[in-house]
């Protein structure tokens, strides 16, 4: 099997896809994959293009982690 090298645009598209399709069940894996893609970008300009998606993924991860730790109250 031949592996395709991703261009910066491909990496951006994959991070965007992860952002829009992540769920509470997949956020850990999706965030890790997005972080690996971010680290593989060649320069600061490319990283700036994905910053908003990375920030969003980070926020979702934090929110969902917090909601798992919050005990539910019974009424």
Structure, explained:
With 75 residues, the protein is mostly helical. It has a domain at 23-67. Helix content is 71%, strand content 0%. The chain has helices spanning 8-21, 27-39, 44-69. Helix 1 (8-21) packs antiparallel against helix 2 (27-39), helix 1 runs parallel beside helix 3 (44-69) and helix 2 runs antiparallel to helix 3. The mean pLDDT is 89.
List the helices and strands and how they pair.
Layout: H1 8-21, H2 27-39, H3 44-69
Radius of gyration of CA atoms, rounded to a whole number: 15 Å
Order of helices and strands: HHH
Instruction: Please tell me what the overall shape is.
Output: globular
Q: Can you give the helix content as a percent range?
A: over 70%
* Biggest sheet layout: none
Structure classification:
mainly alpha
Total helices: the number is: 3
What's the β-strand tally? Answer: 0
Oligomer: single chain
Strand content: under 5%
- Poorly predicted runs of 5 or more residues: none
The separation of the N and C termini measures 56 Å
Average residue pLDDT:
89
